[in-house]
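User: Predict the full complex structure for these chains.
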Amino acid sequence: GAVVSQHPSRVICKSGTSVKIECRSLDFQATTMFWYRQFPKQSLMLMATSNEGSKATYEQGVEKDKFLINHASLTLSTLTVTSAHPEDSSFYICSARDLLDRPNTGELFFGEGSRLTVL
Amino acid sequence: DAKTTQPPSMDCAEGRAANLPCNHSTISGNEYVYWYRQIHSQGPQYIIHGLKNNETNEMASLIITEDRKSSTLILPHATLRDTAVYYCIVRPAQVYQKVTFGTGTKLQVIP
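Assistant: Here is the predicted structure of the two-chain assembly.
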C-alpha cells in the first residue's frame, strides 16, 4: 500500500526554539496533505490543509504564524512549529491522498506521527 | 463532514466478533462511510469504506443500513492486536476534502 513517512518520529526541544516536521509521500504524489494534532486521550484535530504550490488553509483557532506549513513539491510537506512552548507538546500526524486515487478508494494515507516534547 | 456518533468504548473477547456501531443520520447521498483505526501512538490506518452496499475485505466487514443512517463495522475474529480506537467518518470519496475525526470507539480486546 501507499506509504506516508514522517520525520522525525520523536523530537525534544527547548522552549523558544523552532521545530520542523517533514511529511513525505513515498510512492505516490499528493497535491494536498493534511496536518493533525492529537493530545493524550483525545481525537485527532485537523490543523490545516497543505496545498502544493500555494498557501495552506488553516482551521479556525490555529495560528498560521505559529504553525508554518510549506508544501514545496508533490511529495513533501513540512510543518514548522515556531517558538515552541510546552503547550505545543503533542502528537502531530500528516496525511495525504494519491493524486491519481490509487487504489481508487478515496483513501487517505497517514504518517506514523511525530511526537513533539517541548521542555 | 457529516457528524457521526459512536460509543466511547467497547470490550470484546479474543476470538469473538467485534461489532462497532456508528450513527450518521445526516449523511448525504454522495457521502461514503469510512472506517479507520488508530493503534496507540501510531497514525490512523484505513480499514474499509462503503456507500450503500455491504462491503468486506481482508480486515473487516461493513454493514450499512438501508436508510444509510447507521453502519456497523465487524471484525470477525478479534485479536489482541485489534485493540485500538476506531473512527467512523462520512465524506465524499472523489473530492479532495478534509477529513475530520470524531471521538471514536476505544475497542479493548480481552484475552
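The interface with chain B takes residues 4, 6, 31-32, 34, 36, 43-46, 49, 91, 93, 95, 97, 101, 105-113, 115 of chain A (CB under 8 Å).
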